[in-house]
Amino acid sequence: MTETTFEEEEYTSQITMPVVRRILGLLRPYWLRALGFLVAIGLTAWMDSYFTYLNKGIIDQGIMRHDVHALYRLALLYGIVQVGQAAAVFTFIYLADTLAERINYDLRRLTFNHLQELSLSYYVRQSVGRLIARVTSDSQKVADLITWGFVDTIWGIFNIGTATYYMLIINWKLALIVLAMVPVLVYIATEFRKRILAEYRRARRMNAQITGAYNETIMGVNVIKALNREEQNLDEFQVLTREMYEASYRAAWLSALFLPAVQFVSALVLAAIVWYGGLQTLHGTLTVGGIQAFVAYVTMILWPVRDLARVFSELQRAIAAGERIFSLLYTEPEVKDRPDAVPAETLLGKIEFDHVSFWYEPRKPVIRDFSLTVEPGETIAIVGPTGGGKTTLVNLLCRFYEPREGVIRINGRDYREYTLESLHRRLGIVLQTPHLFSGTIRENIRYGRLDASDEEVEEAARIAGAHDFIMRLERGYDTEVGEGGILLSTGQKQLISLARAVLAQPEIFVMDEATSSVDALTEALIQRGMEALLKGRTSFIIAHRLSTIRRADRIIVLKAGQIVEMGTHAELLRLRGHYYRLYTQQFKAERARAYSGLEALA
Amino acid sequence: MTPKHLTQTHMTHNQLSRHPLDLRRVVGKRRLAGLWFMTRGYRLAYFGAIVALALATLAKTYTYLLLRYFADLLTHQQKPILGKTMPQAFAWVAAGFIALALGQGLFSFLSGRLAAYTAEGIARRLRDYLFDHIQRLSVAYHTHVSTGDLVERVTSDVDAVRRFFANEAIGIGRLLIIFGINFLAIYHLYPRLAWVSVLVTPFIFAVSLVFFRKVSRVYEEYQKQESRLTTTLQENLSGVRVVKAFARQDYEKQKFERENWRKYTLGKRLTFMHSLFWPASDLLIGAQILGGLIYAALLAIHGQITVGTFVAYTGLQGWLIMPIRGLGRMIVQGSIGMVSYGRLVDILKEAPEPLDDGDFIPDEPPRGEIVYDHVGFTYEDDTVPALEDITFRCQPGQVVALLGSTGSGKTTLVNLLPRFHDYTEGRILLDGVELKRYPRAWLRRQIGIVEQEPFLFSRTIWENIAYGAGREVTREEIIAAAKAAAIHDDIMAFPDGYDTVVGERGVTLSGGQKQRVAIARALLKAPRILILDEATASVDTETEAAIRAALARLMEGRTTFIIAHRIQSVMHADLILVMDKGRIVQQGTHAELMAQEGMYRQIFEIQTKIDEELREEIEGAA
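Output (structure tokens, whole complex):
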């Protein structure tokens, strides 16, 4: 089951400097472009203020003095500034946007590539949904922050700054009255933000739950249909949508209240300008143009102040996203190459488990003091109860995990001295639940060896017993398997994953057997294919079928992380111990079924 | 048994009571007509929002007219109307500004609240409808659709449509009102000035329209690329063991890099379009503002309008231009909503299964006599039939086993029973009545299915077992079912017992445990007909016996279909159907089939040969 509920973790309200520095560090390769857009946005904001100032000139010098020449001169200047602003706007949109795309791209690449290096233990702790969110939405948030987040902030600062400058030039007393409104606005904005944000969070939480409900319903749709759960499901879903509705409705009307509140404050300031400014005009210390400029500036600085609270909360969210991304990027893989690692020449040598112990959680060992020597070419069958450590043992062998205690040696050398790549390249693994990638059957088999020719792919499929069913498909090897192989049956997926391992021509073959869901005829084919595959290779098979167990050179009975019995089939039977019980139980079950069929069920 | 005859109108009523508005009616409508349809029930609120907006805009516009009066006072072109002295008049003007702001605030809040009510209400209705629609879409649809893509659509596309109603649908009305009222205001000041102020409008509109068309196309591609990228990512992350096992990290990196780079280049294309559009439209708007400004200034210089009028005009002009500039952006954003709307209609287009369709509803459960009479079935998007000429009969309580290779049509055959698919040829009779006459919902209540890999929901075990019982069940009943399914002891071994949450957030159950939960689920449902899909295939030896015993209890007295790969599981069935390539190649009892040449004996011989060898071996060794 995959989780696609991209739930957002709550973030800290503190903005921590190291994270900010790291985020800014992402800009370093593009510092020239970043500088360019900062300059362009600053210019754009300044020109906005300048237009109003020019307008004042038109009134005071042109209209009031009936001076047409002054008007034309100022109008020409106005036009020039407009062209300049268009150029600046082009520059900042282009630079900010391409930069956002670029950094988004960089972050996706960085996180994805790092994820490829991380060990299995990391994946066990994290859900796929969370990891997807790191690579996609978190990257997006950070990229947006260091481009559009900055655009908003710098625009705001420059807007307020330049407007203040011109207001001070025109009339400093009135300017102070206008500036007095800024803290009031900031206070109102913060208070509203807090409440609106709480509702947004609630809505986001509900959104995650709704996504989860959709996900589960779609994946389990057959069960839902079979069990007639449609009505009840809808009822349950409507509880979620109602809460989502309530949260977003409240957030929306709170926002609708916020704007009038801000405008009312500005109206008070406007009233002050009219009254006080009017008196000043009577004394001749303020012009009509001046008053009109003030009215315009009050409206102008309203927006950035209003937006400041929003930008700030977005900043917090983006920084939290950045924190999550960097914590991923700074996670060291648990299993990685040693600095002095050498490529393994061959894995066809003696494999020794020397007093190996392993645990996922302290004091709960899964493998205890496990010792085993395997000769090249040997086939080892691992049997035992669920939870006995079979899968962990195989994971250790594949070096998905490394022993906590003890050593695993291949060719007499600690396998940690080899590079991971050289180990994995010579390993063929078939998992119990086969995983395929979207693409054709041919592409999926070729995953085993990328440079294999079409003939080699087909040969591998033949060995694995997959060729016949593939040829029966309308498009043969070019059949699309769908996302995760959804268009194929479980048995078909198994055959393809077997063919994939065959093509890899591994030196060590590891299989978590699951042949039981393939029909009898195909199973016989597989058995024959496996025989060919096992020849000349060291093999470890977590075996469930008697035929597989019987064929093994040696059988290990694993219980509670330890070998309780080991030997050939005949030797173990003679012991009359765990294996004997396991085997006869399985044997009786199969025989009983063969002779008395379904009545054995009762 | 007294069959009830239901009329078509009753069912339509049923459909309507679940969803007050049948959103499928948007299918086939043009985009705007479809979106308009979705506003049903909210049109009054929407209208109210628009009226409130008009009043708020009016208050805003009057602010500028008040400013005009004030400026004319200052330049002595106006006598004070209220107050005798100038300072008194100023005070009245100041009070006027505050009063207008209050009016404006009240109405704009009202409008915002009504708009939110509209948009959120429509979105909620859409979410509910889509959820129900999707769970009623056919099994055939669900096998071919990717979960990730579907989830993406019903979440982010619904949100885009919500934004369309919250921002664009209201916004476009708002912009038109602002434009209209301010145009009238300027017209009132000086008619020719109003006409001069809108000269460039058509050009801006044309530019934004061309841009809108282009951007929507690129954006759609961009979205598609995004979902491709997510699919690649998801597959990589969930297949991490395979990637590591084959040491394919570099290959995966390259694969991801291709998709990542493509998204980047598409994003850059979008960017470039935006960065051209905005300054270009800015220039047009700038020319308009400047032209209007010069014209108004000349009028003022020549004394045709007062200074106050000029001041008011410079303010009003901004409010006249803003909507035109905004209109372009609104349409661009609207295009995103439209694209999303189109993607949702694609889902709505698919016909849901009519669950209550059928005129034969017995009061009692069926006896379970089933007849397949020359049944054939072809998948909708396929030309080769999946099933051909299937004919057999089974008595109530009998066991029918299906044997055959992967893809031979076994699952398709049993999937016809709960009407997951409807047969395209021949007929199936249940208790002598054609299957298509039974409503799907009724039919499915009579059929229990235990799958090879049962799907459990991320809920508690209580809920998972009770899931689909179709009635209130007591805890005792659940525990009894769990005991009968031989899962009780396993459950009690979990720290939270029956309250254990299953799945990624809780405890991961083994394949055998899941199966037994599914058996308990089926026991509680107590169906007349049972379908077991390879129910013991993926389980290890120790749990197999427990499952077999549980299954035997489940099968007691029920008509049972067993899909099997192994001859051992089918030998004592009352009827064995040997299937190959969608046809029944042999049928009969074990004894009958053994007496014939054919596939059955062939499979049997292979399996007994293996077993024979094993027996010899154990004897030889011991």
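Strands of chain B lie at 370-377, 387-394, 399-404, 425-430, 433-434, 447-450, 529-533, 559-564, 575-580, 583-588.
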